[in-house]
Amino acid sequence: MMSYLVVVSPLYLSSRDSHPSKDSMADSSMSLAEVEMAFQKFAVHGDTKATGKEMNNKNFAKMCKDCRITDGKNITTTDVDIVFSKVKAKTARVITFEQFKQALAELAPKRFKGKSQEEALQQMYGLIAGKEPANVGVTKVAKAGAVDRLTDASKYTGAHKERFDESGKGKGKAGREEIADTSGYVGAYKGSGSYEDKVKEA
Q: Where is the composition biased (Basic and acidic residues) (predicted)?
């Protein structure tokens, strides 16, 4: 029985492996652009003065939590804090997008154990791409029924009732405090305010 040995040129193999296809390059650059957009959204979260170019530790931790990078097992909040401190400049309190990518490169092998560095990083990008802070758009209007019942002043009793007029409008300070009667008349006197008129008549 004859066997044949096929020899493939190493040059052929290396030329195939060393040049990723245009599609895979386009995918990675596209996902990186989406990761940068997510970075900017989380960077400005809760800070009206933020430009989106730098991210603080609090927002970095939130991003890791919202994007499920922090899983409590492979990566904990402590790991996230350590990596943030490691990649940021010594005196800085924020990280740039470049430093953010370094942080992801540090966390990726821990989060996706058994994967190559490149694979782990791509999966990391996949978790972040297109995401935004979780509480954006989550607040919904409460069901009107319950709110209406709680804010209907006509149903109030006791001291609370004294704080609103018939139309349900608050009386402000007058409804909250016992304001002393300085008119000079005895309380419950029905002819209060009639003194001036009686003097004129006399």
A: 159-177
